[in-house]
């Protein structure tokens, strides 16, 4: 059974059981500050489990893209070394929100696996929670009794808290779970050792394929459990493992989920992958297998993350994606001998393979391919740089053990991997101190963990029920009551309080727009609100202190100055998006934005630099829409399909409901939950201040509106006044600057000519200073020239013969530079290399450099080191 058919069979089965089939949420989470990525099937449904929102159906089924590479669930370092861990994986799920429970969920699981898929019952084992006396959670008798209807007791394992009690996190909904495991070993192996003993023992062929989580409890901040008001079912089934079981193989990588990608890697590299059925492979082949598994796994995670809107970067979720891709690149570099970008070629295979169920990968194929190609090229350059730095470390090392601290610096600063460092050193008969490396790594992790440590108290509920609402589209001030509060303590921000209001006018951060600031005012006090965010469908107002009387009536007042400026920038962002599509082409899609009171930032797909002429056209387009005084047409709640049919732009990677909010200014129409001006005239003016590349195929424009434009023009006017004053107030400032530039160019030419003449004059003087060392004409001297003059002098002296070894030092404006010239004949005869010479001597001036074998230069920071560098130069010809 093909993987596509298995996926279809699952969804059709649960559709027949009254489940609504919903699409996968994006792999990148944009509205959950507690998670970077969707790391489980239930992540997109957290607000329903918490009771903060109502699902559109009490029964839902889906297949969810998941990523486990950070935080509590992190499988990254296992990937490639075994046959069943992955960074990205699919989780087939069926969900009950206060509807059915154990007596339906367990029989349906058994029915699907044994009757629809016809898996061998004799290979299946099940587990139930054994209970935990310390936490007052009893043995799951209900699940045990239900399972006895389908399997004998000798196939029911009693699992502990680690294996059979699932928790969302340190706090929140949780409950016992009942798993189904399959034994895929041969009949002989099964006869020799019972599969019962291998369940949850990390055996690669005895694996969990189904997990029914029965959400019954809420974990509080003090660790205690309380009963949830409703019982839920959260089912997760590992799609890749199920494919392994259905396709009669013993490795996820031998299924058709991965084999097309593996075949493409084999075609590109000329190396072969051996399936898990082949035993006793060589150590060399095992390394190839691991590298190929790493690459085909990681490309899926990276490609889908980019397709869902997360570009590789140096921080946050973007850094995690970059790290995954770099791990794949270095495995190819080290073990598959791939020195050029190639992983990007796998995207086409992935798009053909998964485009039917996940259309985003097909739609974003070109962008994903280009971004990965650029990342590959960049990191391969970094690896080359790391190789050179490692050479320097080796040269400085006495003995055969390199400092683990130095090895960690290479890893931390340049991303140079530990295993590659070990491999290169091994070839030189060396190693590095792993204990020091690990200690440095742990120190960094401890610093990072300490910086991000957060402790969150339980919610204190002041008003029961889901009474919270947002009134900020119509009001910036409203009478409110506090419905719940909690304390949050972090290393970064200190003690903060999160306040939830019954009818808040404060807009929570989202859709690129920053959260509102303002105050809560009662008869007796004023509480400053320093930020507003949304978490699990609750709007959280952040304050440094709580009101003394939590039950009092308050007036929530948004800082309208900040709100108005933000709304101008947000509306201008929509108009600019329209302008870019009109001027550059409809391939332009928004890939990210930031809207705050000061400015706006807009990332978009486009494959070349936007010219000055095009930028001016965009600016003129937006300002024309401002001049047209277009009124805001807001559709507060419109069916999403109707909005799309009417031409509304939906932003890729965003999660939309059945009904959406549509914002229209003239011909610009977008789905958007943000705050906007009532009329484009309110924006006043629009000005682009910068344009540049963010990643391959992604450009970024930064712009200002309103007061920002006024301040910009005022500063430009002041700058022009200062320039005129410096030029003695000429009538035509431009003409005066051009004249100054012309005069400067003439003077530069005169100086260059004088320096060349000076170099020629010095030639005869220095020729007399040459000394013969081992048959080589040698000179190392500091000269009063600029670096270009030193180069000219070196070549002039080089014409005197074919056995010259020359090192000249300059220190123009205190910046030291070493230039080395070696006659080409000497390079060949004595195996000398000017690049190596300057790299070695460059250490004395705290710098480095390189060049050709016969001429190279090195710059540095320490001019005081020049005499020692010159003194050491003779060592190369002795």
Automatic annotation (TrEMBL):
InterPro entries xref list: aa-tRNA-synth_II/BPL/LPL, Ala-tRNA-lgiase_IIc, Ala-tRNA-ligase_IIc_anticod-bd, Ala-tRNA-synth_IIc_core, Ala-tRNA-synth_IIc_N, Ala-tRNA_ligase, Ala_tRNA_ligase_euk/bac, DHHA1_dom
Primary enzyme class: ligase
Alanyl-transfer RNA synthetases family profile domain segment(s): 1-715
The organism's taxonomic lineage, starting at the top: Bacteria, Pseudomonadati, Bacteroidota, Flavobacteriia, Flavobacteriales
Sites where the protein binds Zn(2+): 570, 574, 672, 676
Cofactor(s), names only, from the UniProt record: Zn(2+)
Domain of life, per lineage: Bacteria
Stretches assigned to coiled coil: 737-776
Domain comment quoted from the record: Consists of three domains; the N-terminal catalytic domain, the editing domain and the C-terminal C-Ala domain. The editing domain removes incorrectly charged amino acids, while the C-Ala domain, along with tRNA(Ala), serves as a bridge to cooperatively bring together the editing and aminoacylation centers thus stimulating deacylation of misacylated tRNAs.
UniProt xrefs under SMART domains: tRNA_SAD
Compartments in which it is found: Cytoplasm
Species of origin: Flavobacterium flavipallidum
HAMAP family (UniProt xref): Ala_tRNA_synth_B (MF_00036_B)
Protein task: Catalyzes the attachment of alanine to tRNA(Ala) in a two-step reaction: alanine is first activated by ATP to form Ala-AMP and then transferred to the acceptor end of tRNA(Ala). Also edits incorrectly charged Ser-tRNA(Ala) and Gly-tRNA(Ala) via its editing domain.
Keywords: Aminoacyl-tRNA synthetase, ATP-binding, Coiled coil, Cytoplasm, Ligase, Metal-binding, Nucleotide-binding, Protein biosynthesis, RNA-binding, tRNA-binding, Zinc
Family per similarity comment: Belongs to the class-II aminoacyl-tRNA synthetase family.
Record note on cofactor: Binds 1 zinc ion per subunit.
One example GO MF annotation: alanine-tRNA ligase activity
Pfam families: DHHA1 (PF02272), tRNA-synt_2c (PF01411), tRNA_SAD (PF07973)
Catalytic activity: tRNA(Ala) + L-alanine + ATP = L-alanyl-tRNA(Ala) + AMP + diphosphate
NCBIfam families assigned: alaS (TIGR00344)
EC number: 6.1.1.7
Name of the protein this chain belongs to: Alanine--tRNA ligase
Cell inner membrane found in the keyword field: no
Database matches in Gene3D superfamilies: 2.40.30.130, 3.10.310.40, 3.30.54.20, Bira Bifunctional Protein, Domain 2 (3.30.930.10), Threonyl-trna Synthetase, Chain A, domain 2 (3.30.980.10)
